[in-house]
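[job 4471] stage=fold_predict status=RUNNING
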Amino acid sequence: MKSVFKLAMLPLLALALATASCKKDEPTPPPPTVDPYKDLYKIGDADLATAGLTLALYMDEEPFAGYNRVYAVVKDKVTNLVLENATVTFAPLMDMGAMTHSAPFEQPTWNAEAKAQKGAVTFIMPSTNGTWYLTVKATNPTTLVEEDHQFTFEVIAKTESRIYSFVSAFDGTTKVFVALVEPPKWKTGMNDFEVVVYKKASMMSFPAMTDLQIEIDPEMPTMGHGSPNNVNPVHMANGHYKGQVNFTMTGYWKVNIVVKDANGNVMNDQGFFDITFTNIF
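[job 4471] inference complete, writing structure tokens
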């Protein structure tokens, strides 16, 4: 009986070995491709054939009046590889028919986390009375051939504005733009509070203001209270001022802002940002 049992088991063993061998020989499937830009808002693509490049333009969300982070992804047209050392420049322009003007912007540099050339544009108004363009120029790092493409898109006005402007009360001539640099999410407790400030030197030039004194005072109008332990923003670089604001509860907050010049003269004390959030993190 044992011999019969052994003979009966031989085909099963052979089948098991063959099956195991087949499984071992099967190639391991490649990991799924992850799109590093899937959470961004895509503005568009461009084929820069002369320079041998492709270009894709993204923002964090739909373009709005205020401070927008902008990402340019430049790839080699043949290999489809992202070129970290490609040179990229931005040039924003608004055509209002009878006139044109630019906007404050920050030229992009390579950002490893975003896997893109990262810069920013502060659109000073929505597209209501004109058309916004952003000309992006890319240079092939190997051939040094450069080519540009003009992207056209709508700039919306947010319900809670992220930019305001004023003419300095101190000199009566300097026009200033203050834009809120939003964190990923507002939360109860201490939040980084960052603004960027520019002045209008001409229709095409909006240099950063780097020597201001800025004070913040958050209040909750519907509840009749403010919050303690806020830190006034101080200049970090390129017109960016960073401090902290304390939101003691969720809901609607009004962050009042006083802007002074380097000597402490009040330029404006009527500015504010409306901030509403409902989630606790």
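[job 4471] summary: The helical segments are 2-25.
[job 4471] exit 0
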